[in-house]
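SAMPLE LOG
Freezer: B-3
Tube label: C17
Construct: single chain, 524 aa
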Amino acid sequence: MRSLPARRWCVPLAALLTVLFVAGPVAGRPNAEARAGTELAADLDRLLTDRRLAGAQVSVQVTDAATGEVVYQHASDALLLPASTLKTVTAAAALELLGPDHRFATEVLADGRRSGGVLDGDLVLRGGGDPSLLPADLDELAGRVAAAGVTGVNGAVRADATRWDDVRLGPNWAWDDQPYYYSPQISALTLTTDTDYDPGTVRLTVTPAAEPGRPAAVRLTPADAPVRLTGRIDTAPGGGAPALDVTRRLGGNEIVLAGSLPVGAAPTDEWVTVDDPAAVAAAVFAAALERHGVTVARGVAAGPAAAGAATLARHESAPVGELLVPFLKLSNNGIAEHLVKEIGFVRAGSGSWSAGLTEVVAFLSRNGLDVTAARQSDGSGLSRHNLMTARRYAALLGFARSRPWFRTWYDALPVAGDPRRMVGGTLTRRMVGTAAEGRVHAKTGSMTGVDALTGYVEGDGRTLAFTVLFNNFAGDSPRPVIDALVVRLAGGPAVAPPPPPPPAPAPSSRPVVRTGGKAALDWT
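STRUCTURE (predicted):
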């Protein structure tokens, strides 16, 4: 340490006393705020020595949300996989570039001439990118077509998904994830089954029989979806655990059933993706038309409507601001990618990942949020090409507080320990009964070897913005360490629970199965 020039020490005694009294305690006796900061850093450092993080990559940044002052950091510029924490970027970009009031429209058009109640041509179902389109919405559209006086269609029901490109799977998405609800094909015309709004899926409800050995009952939603069920799920003796395997063969819509459900078990829902979501939506719509008395001669086809085709019916989604709730609370991958492609279409005239992500990057750059290098390859975080830094998240968390859409974005983040599904979301069962319960709004992110959390915590007298990124861990999950870090930021003790004891080996006769169910809630 360099010594100060002698003249800098020539200070009158009165001035020196004034400096000491105004500045606080002398060196070696830090004031309460400095001491608290030192204790916090020491506690966080100690938590990061947990053996579950041995050999892992760890990045943390904590800032004062109001001032941007760095409260704590650990390798905050490290480029790591973000998993679903990337959805915070996509959501902010959508609110900024589309606006919270933006809606997705689905239309029915008559492509041909009408003679009385008969359309000599095709009826076109034109997708507008709605990730929340339900079978009931298609039924309502069919009812409006019938109410418009159409009783027959000499042509086909044509699926028009041309608002966006025809690239349905994101870059570097795992091929073996394709059957599962969290990895759907992305199309401008698609269908979901419930208000979780997982686009491009069908739902199977499995109910055990009354006696062991008999096949379980399987109900498909929507019932008219053109999928084929093969295999069967057996009913096992009561008292056992469900062991279902519901998957889809790649390249088509054959859904294969296997496994068992014990007598007396509650019905189990399984969500499975479909191949060619636009064709599935058109088939469900054609069936709805038949129910409303509108006959279709030539089944289902694909292609856009001709210029000048007359609009017979139109359905609009909830606004983007409302769709953010299932998007962020439930970590909905499909909605994320719909937002990216819609950003590309609205802002650049091209409904593609490339165009949409270019607009997202430009938005970040315009607002000074590209404070470190990064790479965004999709909207959901499902791709392992994505790379983010904790410091870059800190910039976004600070910027968001200045925007008119902040409250919409903040309220859509999961809330720690809140038992209400559409409030707590992926944090419903985390940090319950701690100082952080109800005081954390944050986005989760997890996939194999990745666990992350980014958002806000109400600390002692101030709001802190934080990001924790853990990558490349093996063995026990380090998620308890993330929760312990956040509890400490909320003013609680710096204690992470010990790792669980190793599980007993499973009997060799017990099958290992995969499931597309939502038990984990947070695949990415």
